[in-house]
Design brief:
CATH topology of one domain: Growth Hormone, Chain: A
Shape: globular
CATH architecture of one domain: Up-down Bundle
Helix content: over 70%
Structural class: mainly alpha
Radius of gyration: 25 Å
Largest sheet: none
């Protein structure tokens, strides 16, 4: 059985042939997109909060490498489970998976906000990555469920634009909170915001007409809701230990360990554990069609439908790749030292996955459908785009810091010109791809970005600075180009796979970009460093250039800066190769399937 089981929300079903989305679709998409924005902003907010987090959990600011697990843990959670969550939304429906992802994101925020050590910060951020990452493919799949193929461009562009808007608002939002409070408030605020968005999403049901399939026997499970709610509330309070309550003479006893000094033996923790155990027992009780919030008796059936073994193998492959590249020191090598073990293990897991997917009756990854040129092209495009995008995100601020700006904030504001243009380009790309087609829109976007990277390859030490500069339209154009490609790539893969696989397809296209970002930054930085070492080898020592004052040798500093700028210019040109490749792939492979084309009359009316 491979059909969708929609639990209280829009599931994937047969492709709708109508020209309009059901009434209320916009409201549901609005709440879903707001959830994506919240998670995206939280992804980038750590850029400013990291030094404060390190100080509070006992890490020295002189050893930033010690905080690497906080970053890599989030990436690992974000990437590894994305395909499984996307496929799960195809099976269970969008609403329960979206709500579940928000719940995991909120719980991760709770753990992060209340942590006192590195382990808690890594676990909290990893949970935030799992929950926040899962919101993106589910939201993209919601667009495919609610909008006919000929009208998906603009809503897909809106979702892509909202996701990219998080990269702009996240640091600004974090900076605003850090001016009057601590970094912990950033994550505490996620709890009420997630609850508000989750409630709004579940209540904003589209009007009748959407193809959904309700699971039989679903009704209100009051005991299950009370038990699970008690476990979440008691567990959350036990972890958070809010000062006014935990330090109170009356209420503080709830946080006092009953056995030794173990936090697991506090009354609140014990209540949470007992409530969780009872919730699991209740979910296991009754017939398979009994009304249960946690329908645990159906787990084996769902495991088979979602291809749990295939999902586990794919998660291993992605985890090994993420760790190998996200923990690498580009100055020392393309990958981390552990990659000598992890990458061969990833290859073995990938081979096992391929064997599994060719034999499994309900394979997680539909290899036959992904061989479709539009699907394969979308994945390859996003892989190449991810490499170019990461080069811009990392190296433009470095260029700004090395030339015109002495502060990290000033350098980040330079990047803001590019980031602010991406969501604008995403919405514009959604509009254009409905009229010009996927190939032309992607090619236009990547041609624009490639041209801007080539211009960056000619930047000098005076290209950036205060006031209006020629570099400003270059940065804006680069961001617009990246944005233009978002909607056509997503629309192409959603149109190429069966409706019952939309969640998985949306997840895979996000994973492709993330993997491209991780691998690309290591590869492009290695290319740039090769150029830097070539230049640095020709620089005389300070003692030769400035015999009288070698420690403050202006000539040596100027030559060193020139070598650094040459490195960055080389990276920009290499990024141009990546985005040009993405444009050519898109022009050659992306296409709107014939059955997805609007009819002649609809086209004449501007559908």
């Amino acid at each position: 059985m491979d059909g969708p089981i929609d639990v209280g929300g829009t599931g994937s079903g047969e492709e709708r042939n109508g020209a309009q989305a059901p009434r209320g679709s916009g409201r549901r998409l609005g709440f879903a997109a707001a959830g994506v924005l919240l998670a995206a902003a939280d992804t980038y907010v750590v850029v400013l909060a990291l030094p404060s987090i390190m100080g509070d959990i006992g890490l020295s600011l002189n050893h930033l490498e010690a905080a690497t697990p906080i970053i890599s843990g989030f990436l690992l959670g974000y990437v590894a489970l994305l395909p499984l969550l996307g496929r799960l939304s195809d099976i269970l429906g969008r609403a329960p998976v979206f709500a579940g992802c928000l719940l995991v994101f909120a719980f991760g925020s709770l753990v992060t906000a209340s942590t006192q050590d590195l382990t808690g910060a890594v676990v909290g951020r990893a949970l935030q990555g799992v929950g926040g990452g899962g919101l993106v493919p589910v939201t993209l799949a919601i667009v495919a469920d609610l909008w006919p193929a000929g009208r998906r461009g603009i809503p897909l562009g809106v979702v892509g634009g909202v996701q990219e808007l998080g990269s702009v608002l996240g640091p600004l939002y974090g900076a605003a909170i850090l001016t009057f409070s601590t970094w912990r408030l950033i994550f505490w605020l996620n709890l009420p915001l997630a609850a508000l968005l989750g409630t709004g999403f579940l209540l904003a049901r589209p009007a009748a007409g959407t193809v959904t399939r309700a699971a039989p026997g679903r009704s209100l499970d009051l005991p299950g809701m009370l038990l699970l709610g008690a476990a979440i509330v008691a567990g959350g309070l036990a972890v958070a230990a809010p000062g006014p309550l935990a330090g109170s003479e009356v209420w503080g006893v709830l946080w006092a360990p009953l056995i030794g000094g173990s936090a697991w033996t506090t009354p609140l923790a014990l209540v949470a554990l007992v409530a969780a155990a009872l919730s699991l027992a209740w979910g296991l009780s009754g017939a398979s069609d009994a009304p249960r919030l946690l329908r645990l008796r159906r787990v084996p059936q769902i495991w088979g439908q979602v291809d749990g073994l295939g999902g586990a193998l794919l998660a291993l492959v992605l985890a090994f790749v993420v760790i190998s590249f996200s923990t690498a020191d580009p100055g020392q090598g393309l990958v981390a030292p552990a990659a000598a073990v992890l990458l061969p293990a990833a290859l073995v897991a990938a081979i096992a996955l391929a064997i599994r997917e060719t034999r499994a009756p309900a394979a997680l990854v539909p290899l036959g459908q992904l061989r479709d040129p539009a699907a394969a092209g979308a994945l390859l495009c996003n892989l190449a785009i991810g490499a170019g995008l990461m080069a811009a995100l990392v190296d433009i601020p470095i260029f700004a810091r090395a030339t015109a700006y002495g502060s990290q904030l000033g350098a980040a504001l330079v990047l803001l010109r590019l980031l602010a243009a991406v969501p604008v380009g995403a919405v514009l790309g959604g509009f254009l791809c409905e009229r010009l087609g996927y190939r032309v829109t992607t090619l236009l976007g990547m041609a624009l970005t490639t041209a801007m990277f080539v211009l960056m390859g000619g930047w000098t030490a005076s290209s950036l600075g205060s006031g209006l500069r020629v570099s400003d339209p270059v940065l804006v154009g680069c961001g617009l180009g990246f944005g233009l490609a978002i909607a056509p790539i997503n629309a192409a893969i959603l149109g190429a796979v069966a409706a019952a696989r939309h969640g998985l397809a949306a997840a895979l296209v996000v994973v492709a970009r993330m993997v491209g970002m991780l691998v690309g930054i290591s590869l492009l930085t290695a290319i740039g460093l090769h150029r830097y070492y070539q230049e640095a080898a020709t620089i005389p020592s300070p003692a030769i250039l400035c015999p009288g004052h070698p420690l403050s040798c202006a000539a040596y500093n100027a030559l060193s800066q020139h070598a650094l700028l040459d490195e960055l210019r080389t990276i920009f040109l290499a990024a141009a190769v990546c985005t040009a490749a993405a444009g050519l792939i898109g022009a050659a492979m992306l296409r709107r399937h014939r059955e997805s084309d609007p009819g002649a009359m609809a086209a004449a009316l501007g559908a």
